[in-house]
Amino acid sequence: SLLVQIFSVKLLPSVGPFLALLGKMCIAASFKTSYIISGEIFPTSIRTSAMGMVSAMARVGSILSPFIVMLGESLPGVQFTIFAILGLSGGLLSLGLPETKDKVLPETLGDMGAGGK
């Protein structure tokens, strides 16, 4: 919705707020989903440390996001492009994560390398 936002502002100004709220909803959903997936991917022996690292990186993104928005003041529309690229790349990279439905979660790093067997 962020990429459409760039092109639709001049054509359909009333669609802009709808797309902005849709993008915000999707970002919130992906943030919550990342915590669920992260808890299932990491083995039990390092799960708390790994979740702490995931949380720290999420906070770094939260700290940097206002600066990306401020960049849009000098280069109009660039903030939408940056957020869209980051969102799409995160979604594409998540396709490579292993499926955890109906599988035993890894207990050690060795189990993680063996695919949870």
How would you characterize this protein structure?
The protein is mainly alpha-helical and 117 residues long. Helices cover 74% and strands 0% of the residues. It is built from 5 helices and no strands. Helix 1 packs antiparallel against helix 2 (15-41), helix 1 (2-11) packs antiparallel against helix 4 (78-94) and helix 3 runs antiparallel to helix 4 (78-94). The mean pLDDT is 81.
Task: List the SSEs and their pairings.
Blueprint (H helix, E strand, L loop, with lengths): L1 H10 L3 H27 L5 H28 L3 H17 L14 H5 L4
Helix pairs in contact: 1-2, 1-4, 2-3, 3-4
Q: Which terms would index this structure?
A:
elongated; about 120 residues
